[in-house]
Write a structure and sequence with these properties.
Radius of gyration: 20 Å
CATH superfamily: P-loop containing nucleotide triphosphate hydrolases
CATH topology: Rossmann fold
Order of helices and strands: EEHEEHEHEHEHHEEHEHEHHH
CATH class: Alpha Beta
Helix content: 40-55%
Number of helices: 11
Structural class: alpha/beta
């Protein structure tokens, strides 16, 4: 045996089991800013900074650009953080979306999928293999990122497959069916003494399904970062369709420099007085005039 999980077999004796690792708040930040023109990632860096070990929800209605946003996040992390192992997990997705994700992401991004024509049992199996692989890598001190599209469809698959407990929530969701998706999402953590598992998962809302609303409510308070995409912005052809006032990261002070944090607080105070359309348009306009986010924040300091 030459390697186990890409590591020397001799290292196996030293590793600590994932469940025994100490979880901490994210402290090291992923920088998503790449080029001047890539405003999507520059806005996310300002509005919802993402740390190593983040457990984030991208809350989105259909056709709000969540899949393209995941592609851009994958490419940004791949460009700026070469040490990170990146997995994109597509559950119950259209086959053409899988092909597009494979072609539009970098070569080192691992795209794993179970398309909508597969059985629910297959969706569950693929998700479990991915999360167990990620846990093993974290045990060796690796930084792993999973981009999941979507946790709603994964929860639906478990709702179909799990034996019914007899306790049915509103919308036909079995109370016991949420346990495994929560276990998947809850695995995201920053680990003491090295290693992290970050999970960014999309959650579907406004689909017309009561079940999807119940699933979102179950996951609403479990993450430590939320990014809301607004359908009203998409109707006006404004991208990224980020609702700045509803998006944010818990304990962002651990990820940001104190001076940077104060400038971002000032930015949020200004944007909070505007409606979602005005705030994103203003931010995009100001960012387009500056080459970097740091330069933009310095202009705010001068103002």
């Amino acid at each position: 045996v030459e390697a186990i999980n890409y590591e020397n077999p001799d290292n196996l004796a030293e590793k600590v089991v994932f469940s025994d690792l100490t979880p901490l708040h994210p402290e090291d930040r992923f920088i998503l800013e790449t080029t001047v023109e890539e405003l999507n990632m520059r806005i996310i860096d300002l509005v919802t900074p993402i740390g190593k070990g983040q457990r984030g929800l991208i809350v989105a209605a259909p056709r709000t650009g969540k899949t393209i946003l995941l592609q851009k996040i994958a490419n940004a992390i791949s460009t700026n953080h070469l040490e990170v192992k990146l997995i994109v997990l597509l559950i119950d997705e259209r086959p053409e979306e899988v092909t597009e994700m494979q072609r539009k992401t970098a070569e080192d991004v691992e795209v794993i999928s179970s398309t909508f024509d597969e059985a629910a049992a297959r969706h569950c199996q693929v998700a479990e293999v991915v999360i167990e692989k990620a846990k093993r890598l974290v045990e060796y001190g690796e930084n792993v990122v999973i981009l999941l599209d979507s946790i709603t469809r994964l929860a639906r698959a478990y709702n179909t497959e799990m034996p019914h407990s007899g306790r049915i929530l509103t919308g036909g969701v079995d109370a016991g069916a949420m346990q495994m998706p929560k276990k998947f999402f809850g695995a995201a953590r920053n680990v003491e003494d090295g290693g992290s598992l970050s999970i960014l998962a999309t959650a579907l809302i406004d689909t017309g399904s009561k079940m999807d609303e119940v699933i979102f409510e179950e996951f609403k308070a479990t993450g430590n970062m939320e990014l809301h995409l607004d359908r009203r912005l998409v109707d006006r052809r404004i991208w990224p369709a980020i609702d700045i006032s509803r998006s944010g990261t818990r304990r962002e002070e651990l990820l940001l420099d104190p001076k940077e944090l104060q400038l971002i607080y000032r930015l949020r105070r200004v944007l909070s007085e505007l409606n979602p359309t005005e705030s994103i348009e203003l931010l995009k306009g100001r960012l387009a005039k500056c080459r970097t986010n740091a330069e933009f924040l310095m202009t705010m300091n001068l103002d």
